[in-house]
Amino acid sequence: MPSAAAALSAPSKKLPHVLPEPETSVADMRAFLARTRPQTPSEALRLLRAAYPDAPLGLRVAACGLAGE
């Protein structure tokens, strides 16, 4: 069993977690909305929540064009 010091000094073999670029995600979401043509912002947010469940609310709001920029 390796010592604690050896375990701490050993380099990690884990790959860094890479998140998608927010602009790409917003562009993908806007393309999705263009295809689905929701009638209201509320419907657009519901569709985005179903299609992109892991995307944060702020990103979905930005994709709908509701974010105050």
The poorly predicted ranges are none
Major sheet attributes: none
Straight-line distance between termini? 56 Å
What is the helix/strand order?
HHHH
Helix count, per DSSP? 4
Mean pLDDT: 80
The total strand number stands at 0
Summarize the topology.
Elements: H1 4-9, H2 22-36, H3 41-51, H4 57-64
Helix pairs in contact: 2-4, 3-4
Structure characteristics:
69 residues, mainly alpha
What does this structure look like?
This protein has helices at 4-9, 22-36, 41-51, 57-64. With 69 residues, the chain is an all-alpha fold. The protein has one domain. Helix 2 (22-36) packs across helix 4 (57-64) and helix 3 packs across helix 4. The longest helix has 15 residues, at 22-36. The protein is globular. It starts with a helix and ends in a 5-residue tail after the last helix.
Quick structural summary:
With 69 residues, this protein is mainly α.
